[in-house]
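Session log. Operator J.P. requested a structure for one protein chain; no other inputs attached. Running the standard single-chain path with token output.
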Amino acid sequence: MNRADESRVADTIAAADGLASRLTMPYEQWLTNEDLRLMTERLVEIVVEAVRSLSDGFCQEHPDLDWSGFIGLRTILVPAYHRIDPGLLWQAADRRPSSDGPPPLKIRIDIGLDSSPAPGT
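Structure written below.
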């Protein structure tokens, strides 16, 4: 992993951790809190921008992650900022409804990066 990729991965993990630690309420409560919705939107945007900037080589080394899916979120968040579907944003960022674990976004990042090859292999 090159230095630029290391920085982008760190940004991605920090934003996903920020979502995991802040989204602790039910959807209905989140939906009525504009500050929380905007924070969620921004942190998801950081994730997708960082992912979009990763090198092709890094993405190829980590095929377990849905890189195009992450980048696809950008096409919803950035140019269509005025039409963002709160339900879709919540699905991308929130905890799994059936558990108290980290949000799916964080799980996908962790699982995908944990499957990386050991150095020198």
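Operator note: Helices lie at 3-22, 27-31, 34-52, 56-61, 67-77, 86-93, 104-114.
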